[in-house]
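REQUEST FORM: STRUCTURE PREDICTION
Request ID: SP-0412
Submitted by: Lab K.M.
Chain count: 1
Length (residues): 191
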Amino acid sequence: MANSKIIFGGEVLIDLTADTVTEDKVLSGVTFHDKKGDALEGTCSYDSDTSDDTAAVAEILAGKTAHARGTALTGTMPNNGAASGTIETKAGEYTIAQGYHDGSGKVAISPQEQAKIIESNIREGITILGVTGTMSGTEDVTAQSASVTPGTAQQVVTPGEGYNYLSQVTVAAIPYTETPNAAGGTTVTIG
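STATUS: Completed
RESULT:
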C-alpha cells in the first residue's frame, strides 16, 4: 500500500486523498499518483475535450483528419489549389468553387477585352478601370454641309453617302416675288 498523505512535525507535506484524477484523464504514457498514493499510468489518447467542437467534414481539407465531438473525422473539402479565371464581358462573373484555395490564383479581365480598354477608345474625360480616355468623338468622321430651299412639301435632310453627319444645314429664304399683272395689280408669288 502506498502513502497518500504525509505529515511531518505537525505539518502536512503531501495530501493526495482529495485528488480526483483518473487514468482516462491523463495522457497515455504519463505517470501520476492517485488519491491512494498508487503510481498509475495515463490511458487518455487525446489532449483536449472535443465535445463542443463544431467542425464538419466539409470544412476539413480532403484526406486530412481531425477530431470533433469525440470522433475522428476525415475531411471532404476539395483542394482547389490555385484557382484562376477570366472575365469576358462587362457583367461577367467568376464563380469561386467551394473548397480550399492556396491564395496564388488570379481572376482577370481577358486579354482580348483588356486590349480594347485604351485611351483612344474611351471618350475624353472618362476613366474606365484606370484608363483615362482621349477620344474627342470626331476621329475618322466625315461631315457634310447641305443647303435646302423651303417648299410646300416636307423635306428630310440627311448626310449623303460616305458622310457621318451634317456639319451645317443652310435653309434659304422662302422665295418671294412681286410682279405687275394685266389687271393693274401686283401678283405675289411665295415659294
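NOTES: Residues 111-114 form the longest helix (4 residues).
Reviewed by: T.R.
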